[in-house]
Amino acid sequence: MATIDAHDAIAAELTGATPADFYKPAPHFFDRDHEFDTVKFGIWLFLGTEILLFSGMFCAYGVMRMIHPEAFVHGSSLLEIHWGLINTIVLLVSSYTVAAGVRHAQTGNRKWLLINIAITFLCGLVFILVKFIFEYWPKYQLGKLPGMYYSYPYYSSEYEPIWWGIYWGATGIHASHVLVGMGLFTWLFVRARRGDFGPRHYNAVEGVGLYWHIVDIVWIFLFPLLYLIH
Amino acid sequence: MATIGNIKGGLAGGHGGVHGDGHDVSYLHPKETILATIWDWASTIDHKKIGVMYLVAVLFMFFLGGIAALVVRLELLHPTHVDTVNHVISGNMLGHLFGVGDDLNKSNDYYNRAMTLHGIIMVFLVIVPGVPASLGNFLLPLMIGAKDVAFPRLNLASWYIYLTGSIFAVLAMILGGVDTGWVFYVPYSTTTDDGYLRVVWMVTAAFVVGFSSIFTGLNFVVTTHKLRAPGMGWFDMPLFVWGIYGAAIIQVLATPVIGITLLLLIFERLFHIGIFDPRMGGDPVLFQHFFWFYSHPVVYVMILPGMAIINELIAVYSRKTIFGYRAVAFSTLSIAGISFIVWGHHLFTSEGEVAAAVFSALTFLVAIPTAVKVFNWMTTLYKGSIDLKTPMLYALAFLFLFSIGGLTGLFLGALSVDLHLHGTYFIVAHFHYVMMGGTIIAFIGGIHHWWPKMFGKMYSEFWARIAWAFVFVGFNLTFFPQFIMGSLGMPRRYATYVPDYQIYHTLSTVGSWVLAIGMFLHLFVFIHSLVLGKKAPPNPCGGLTLEWTDAASPPIEHNFHREPVVTHGPYDYDDVLPPQTEPGEFILPAPAPASRAGH
Amino acid sequence: MTSVVTIGQQFLRDMWFSRSNSTQAAETDFLFFFVLWVNILSFLFLMGTTTYFVIKYRSRPGVPTQRSVSHNTPLELAWSIIPLIVMVPIFFWGFAGFLKKQAAPAGSEEIRVNAEKWKWTPVYSNGGQPKEYQKFIHEDNDVPVIFVPAGRPVKLIMTSKDVIHSLFIPDFRTKIDVTPNRYTSMWFQAIDPTPYDPDTKTYKDHYVFCAEYCGDNHSQMAALLRVVPADQYEALKADLLLPPEGAKPEELGEFWWSKRFGCKQCHTIDGKASTGPTWFNLWGSTVEFDDGTTLDLKDAETFFNYVRESVYEPQAKTVKGFPKTTMNSFQGLLDEKQLSQIIAFMRSPKVSPATAPAGGGDQPKPPEAGAPKGGSGGVGGAGGEAKGETPAKPGGK
Ligand code: HEA
Ligand code: HEA
Ligand code: CUA
Ligand SMILES: [Cu+2]
């Protein structure tokens, strides 16, 4: 979308201004505000589809829980709440930093923008590491796997493989969203260093920020549903 | 119809002027070398080129799906049948076609794969993306006076995603095809072809194509909201835009659900997670609910763009404003809304009584807004000046065929009758009448209508009308007997059948040949037009929407030479002489009597 | 005039419907024709008016369009409200008919129907199965002839062994899905006995189709339904293919294996390879599973538990060299008594000549429900058998 002509680039070199200061909207928009509104609308719509995607997952959870409550109660008591809690906190922190990042982009504070993006990225990384090292891996080794691959010998209901199916399915799809988010933060970081963002142009930061909030919110629902309700 | 003021003022200062670097030429103008031209198309973010590429791809897929349909019909002409008295084996067209001789199991299997391939291609690769991604892409920005869709790169991405999905589907086909039926019902789809990955490929294809659908829909919703030319209010938009908009909303809201459903199906198939697997305590009917929660709304994704086209065709070729514009616009929204709460009518034979009652009642409700549209189109013709050009013939065929298809939906909504008709050829006939007789017919009509605009060439009116006649007759011959045999008890997805149904199948197969002749004629008419067609004037049909009044045929790269100046509504044929036409070509009606002058 | 209408009706009926022969069919047909007439009238109104307009207002060179109003609220309301009113009775009749098709009257004759790819197996309340089979479409395809009494309600209680099927009787205008792991039911009351044609020596039987896609031979998965006079029904029922009377357990087991449950299709008793592991000399052997573990089937209790688990929880263990997902649970299809008879058959000299004499003496008692948890990895322990005949009901409907 952003196009900077050569002329502007030279001007930027000479004056020390960033590319963001010369940002022009794509030609099919009337002006920058128009582009900004449009992009934001699009992003919200996209996030709506994300929420719908996860609602499908939550529906599956609800129906399966209704049919086999015992499997879900017992299965969820096997999860370690502390890891879930740590991850919840990590994501909440990252939600704060990403919001701060957007504000710094608006005020043109490149340094703090970078710091906040970096922290958010690291939070995502911590989340993933905790998830994989302390949750997925031991479960994998013990055979607490979905459906047919289930082989954990201590269970109270023969339907527990379904519970693990839901657990792996829901957290897996969520984790893949976290990974995508980390990719997006890397991209933002590179662009922010180049000085692409400023008060006149911070669409991308805002968009990724909103996406990250949705990923957080989904986790805020997943955490109690999977870990807390016995 | 409200008059849109001069919108030029509102634009002041917005756009940079014309760049003067060749943007004034037709968007079809080739680059210096062939390679450069190919690269130009492959990397284009111009909605018109993307629309044309979609059009070609969708028609190609339609061709593939149509061939599969002909194979299906061929087998049913004379299916494998072993005369148990004389021990004569007869029929088995597919067995011979694929060289498996008279092995009934194998030829049944081929039939099932051909039938599934046909269903999947037609639904996921033809009719859902069809109209919006091709004509919609091309026309939406033109009609609302924009230079492009809101997110041009997303648009291109969506095209490549569609391409990827199609390649997956073709790959699954090359690997041997799948035999699940287009609805992928579990536990059949999770157990069939055990040890092969084809089903996973095919489901992945549908999943991937879903994303292209979401992106297109999202793009169109945002474009319609944000990119309308200043001064163009919601009720000044052409009804085509309303239809595409309604469909886009459903695409955005329903497709994610099929996304997660197909994902769970893939998990189920690969990891046997058990959610849908009755052997592990899962619920196969849950899958059906998930599937139809998307796939019912999606039938309106299919039909709304078809209806959108019909609005334009009827208005232009009868030179009348659409009767009850607002009612038609609102009925689009209410169809979109109600479509989300009727999915259970596909499950009358597998769900409980209460659910069935609720879904049946809601199903009837969805017929009301459709009735409003149909009757308003009928009344639009009143006192018009009806010109039976090919597109108008298609619009009339649409009225005829779609209302048969829609009305037969009422049998299916009635619970006790559906217990008889479910899973029979009556259903097959119903949905071909609405999908083929509705959407595809409208689509072909629309292609004819906008052909001169898209490619700058005229087609042969005479031959197009002949082709229309073949299609219309062939279609009815193919699918009307299916209503009768369905009601007589012929189940669908049957590779062979008892002799009682022979006569209907024979009629149907012969019909499919007539239909195919018509389709191929159309194809030749189009090819002929591209090669030898006369150059098209900018407004051959006398339309009043912006693509006709303000753009060249074919449009230039930035759509409009000047920012469009809209001084009339999209259908003000009573008061406005169509711009860009020959003087004297169109005549205005006499001025309104004084008593109604202010109307 | 009336005769024209009747002839017209008769013509339409013959065009749209096969003969009807159940108490519900007439009602369904009535509603069908009501909708048909509503449709014909609305279609004629729509297309008639359209055609009239197209001819009257065709464009003629030099003749301008006439002015007309652009909308008319009363008119538009009329064609929203009239269809709405018409659809109210359609809905109610449809719903009423649906409820009638769902709830069988008390005292219905109950017939179990087991579905599997690709055949229907009816089992009468006395445990009998049809003796008569007929060729259907293909030489290798034998379909059962199901007798039902005329003038008495018949209730079919159905379940499936593998995928979803749907039992469809066109002449009775009804069908219902048959789902694995769940019972569904449907009922009808046939009116007239099926006519016999002495010339061709055949009955004009009613077709029973499978109406839910289930794979290769979906189109050959059929049965023939013959309505017999109520007074002949009991006699015919007594003459069905019954488990041999006064037979020894192993003979009953053989009957279940070959005739009733179709074990025979996948498990041979002579050591030949087939879809599933052979039963030949299984008793007393050592099986090896795909995860490398082995199990000695040398004592009666282990053998019993192993077979029992394999029947009710086929997924629990997989014999080396066989795919994981082939067999479906027989939970709810095969009861404990039949199971012990099958096991007796497996241990008989006919199937296990090598070891049968040694183990033949001690008939194992079926262990108590839930008791043998430790022994066999125990999935079956807490689960199904307490429920006896009812399959686990995951759908909760
Ligand atoms: C373009 C796609 C499309 C459209 C628009 C429709 C429109 C409708 N469909 Fe259809 N339908 C399908 C595609 C579509 N359908 C497909 C693909 C299937 C099968 C899928 C499968 O199993 O493979 C299916 C199956 C299907 C079923 C399930 C049958 C079964 O499997 O048992 C039902 C049941 O209620 C149904 C009902 C309806 C109704 C009531 C409408 C209504 O929206 C129709 C409204 C239109 C009219 C009513 C006609 C115009 C109005 C007039 C002429 C005015 C007069 C009106 C009155 C007097 C009411 N459809
Ligand atoms: C858009 C949807 C669509 C369309 C257009 C069609 C078109 C046709 N379909 Fe069908 N069909 C389905 C969607 C569609 N179908 C679905 C969803 C199923 C259910 C599958 C399932 O049960 O799982 C089905 C099932 C189905 C069956 C039932 C199979 C069974 O249950 O066993 C049959 C049988 O007759 C059939 C026949 C046909 C025929 C003869 C056509 C003909 O109309 C085809 C005519 C087309 C051609 C001959 C191609 C010619 C094209 C060109 C030359 C390209 C150029 C064209 C232009 C430039 C305009 N289809
Ligand atoms: Cu059984 Cu189809
Ligand atoms: Cu539907």
Structure overview:
The complex is a heterotrimer of chains A (230), B (599) and C (397). With 230 residues, chain A is mainly alpha-helical. Helix content of chain A is 77%, strand content 0%. Chain A is built from seven helices and no strands. Chain A starts with 5 loop residues before the first helix and ends with a helix. By secondary structure, chain B is mainly alpha-helical. Chain B is 63% helix and 1% strand. Chain B contains 17 helices and two strands. A two-stranded antiparallel sheet of chain B has the order 1-2. In chain B, helix 15 (461-487) packs antiparallel against helix 16 (502-532). Chain C is of the alpha+beta class. Chain C has nine helices and 14 strands. In chain C, a hairpin with a 5-residue loop joins strand 13 (286-288) and strand 14. The longest helix of chain C is centred in the first third of the chain and has 34 residues, at 23-56. Chains A and B meet through helix 2 and helix 6 of A and helix 5, helix 7 and helix 8 of B. One heme-A sits between chains B (183, 299, 302-303, 345-346, 348, 363, 366-367, 370-371, 374, 403, 406-407, 409-410, 412-413, 418, 422, 427, 430-431, 434-435, 438-439) and C (38, 42, 46, 83, 86-87).
* Separation of the first and last Cα atoms of chain C: 51 Å
What spatial form of chain A do the alpha-carbon principal axes imply? Answer: elongated
Sheet of most strands of chain A: none
Biggest interface reads: B-C, 107 and 102 residues
Indicate the proportion of strand residues of chain C.
15-25%
Oligomer: heterotrimer
Q: Tell me the distance between the termini of chain A.
A: 49 Å
Average pLDDT, all residues of chain C: 80
What is the 3D shape of chain C? elongated
Secondary structure category of chain A: mainly alpha
Strand order of the largest sheet of chain C: 3-4-12-11-6-7
Mean pLDDT of chain A: 84
Q: What composes the largest sheet of chain C?
A: 6 strands, mixed
Question: In a few lines, what is going on in this structure?
Answer:
Chain A is mainly alpha-helical. Chain A is 77% helix and 0% strand.
